[in-house]
Write a structure and sequence with these properties.
By secondary structure, the protein is of the alpha/beta class. The protein has a single domain, classed as Rossmann fold. It is built from 4 helices and 9 strands; from the N terminus they run βαβαβββαββββα. Strand 2, helix 2 and strand 3 form a beta-alpha-beta unit. Helix 1 crosses helix 2. Its cofactor is Mg(2+).
Length: 189
Amino acid sequence: MAEGLRDIPLHRGLDRILIDEETLQARVRELGREISEYYGDRSPLLVGVLTGAFVFMADLARAMAMPLRVEFMAVSSYGQATQTSGVVRILKDLDRPIEGEHVLLVEDIIDSGLTLEYLIDVLQRRNPASLRLVALLRKNKPRSVPARADWVGFEIPDEFVVGYGLDVAGRYRNLPFVAVVKPDAVLGK
Ligand code: XMP
Ligand code: MG
């Protein structure tokens, strides 16, 4: 067991903590302040991408000292594999039109950037008043698409991470920190 990880069942399978709870919370509060300042007296609609963004979305929304609304979309992800297929499918769409709304898309992580690229395209065609993006994490790697985000919580190395909403095969979403899993866990062993 890596240093800093107590031997409790939730932590088995983890290699090391990448971003601890205190650092995460401080950065999310800072993002909340910055984003609130940007919107001023415009009330944004936060659109979270399920399932990974649910924890970040909950903390970010509470860090924004302004009236806002929240909705979620669900898109297909990697399933149990860790390589992007480049194919994104909407599993759950928004309940209402977003025409004329100030939409803030809330993502957990930008890896290849393909998911975000697809979502931007879909939402932009619905004529929102504005569309901005915040991602908690962005992997530092070369990409075929630009992976533009207006706010990014942390740039991280190109490793598979879990916790704070992120999973491997559905597990570890409830970790209060972001960690790198042992290679065996990523392969589903
Ligand atoms: P792309 O490649 O389209 O991927 O930017 C975005 C989605 O892939 C998932 N993803 C991860 N999930 N740990 C995870 O738990 C990771 O390191 C990771 N990398 C990508 C995630 O669902 C994200 O929305
Ligand atoms: Mg996932």
